[in-house]
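Run folding on both entries below.
>entry_1
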Amino acid sequence: MKKRITIAVVLIAFGVLIYQNITAHSTGMTGRTLKPGSDPGCICHGSSPTTSVNVNIIGPSSMGMGDTATFKLKINGGPLAAAGCDIASSSGNLITSPSESFLQRLAVGSDFELTHMSPKAPTSDTVTFTFRYIAPNTVGTATIYANGNSVNLSGTSSGDNWNYASSKTISVTSTSVREINGTASSFNLKQNFPNPFNPVTKIQYGLSKPGNVTLKVYDVAGKEVATLVNQYQNAGTYETDFNASDLGLTSGLYFYSLISGDKKEVRKMILTK
């Protein structure tokens, strides 16, 4: 009789453990990315990552100090009746997006990570989680890490898969881009003001539709001297500062070029010292 009771207790404990793992699966996971100091892997959905699941972090590769940008985590492949995620960063801050109702922000030690509140169903064979990232207030690089799972919603972990995303490295510069207006009537690049300038001038531009945007400065020989913007941006009117003293530039004529999609505009500006 004593042996039967012991076996029963073990089975109950095992059942509680399974329940806890399924609950953790359904309400999010943290500490499971490739971020140093984490416990890599997704223990609820198999012991090893699988290449059948594709997890990609989409967003700008360059940001100004303290700037906020929108990123997307895309998951496809595997059974994909639904998907979940864990998103972490080396520095800066991860925050939820107002347009995303499936993510929550949880404390992990002294940092915060983003994870699903419940598994999210796919649209066109892909699950997309939208989130925001605030760059640190120091020049350098920062990294966003992620883990995504693809589940069949069978009630068990059998047949579920997961994989890591390729870590997203972000160059953090002293340039700050500000959104002035959420709309723009056309693609346009304004004349910098003041012009001539010493050593700081403002550059304003408009985007009539979202896309990858680059704003670069060149000297008269055509050599690139600065990248002010290199990121995905929504339609709108933006403004950024160009500080020549940061680059040790001499007086003279410079060009600045705005490119997004098949659109391009170039203007001149004069630095006087």
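>entry_2
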Amino acid sequence: MVSNVDIFTPIHDDPVIQGEITACNATNDVFALNVKDIVTYLSFLGIPFDQPQQITEGLLEGQMKFLKRLGVDIDGGHTTYTSWPLMGGIAIGIDNKENLIPKQIKRSVNVGDILLTKPLGLQAAMAVYRVLKEMPEMVADFDPDMLKKAIDLGVEMMTTSNYYVVKTIHEENLKSTIASMTDVTGFGVKVHASEMLEESNMDIMIDKLPIIVGTDKTSEIFGYDLLGGCAAETAGPMLISIDTNIIDSEEVQRLLKKNNVNSWKIGTFGPGSGQVKLKKDLDVIPIEDYNR
């Protein structure tokens, strides 16, 4: 049994969309261990006394809408009154222990590739969403169509489940080819990559980053270190290390694509001293359409 709890404050004004983001964020941590089947989902809501009932109902509707796509329902939960809206989920999954994939790279693997399954830049995209409502002058020099595209793509990313990554691993018997796996959330890709190196004599070299279009520039305005790998993500991508002694990472990408999962090879790993290194002249790939 694998369980996860995620509770956070709202980042989108539409309660149904926020509910979908909530459920996606809570379930992705279970999928990050290669557990495919969510058997229980409990909803947590912190409701201000003056919050309109339709917002509370929308948050639940959004969670149910997202979970339905996974064949899951809300089985219960907890509601309390708070001074600021809070929402979250408790996701519980069941799988055979031998199917679990650890966060740390296996000691038996000494070389391989690093894959990422969604573009980065969600923190900056949602910051644009906020400032366009409150301080539009901060982004007045940017193309409005590009800003809207970044926001729309950010919402699409945060409501796209990592379930299909795990589905591919199970269907294609890829478990033995994967040296480690985790999802990229609040600490950014660099810190989550460093977690893969715990208790190992390996280095990860990142030379490429797919990002939501325009978020490299807007991150600079907001002070987010996106290109340094330290910007936070919500319901972010899977970060996967591939044992290239067993399989070519391009074959893994091809198999992921069968389940409509896009992926990018962002770097490699090999013998070293436990460091994550980002290439100085990083190859930045702006993504305008996820094609999910």
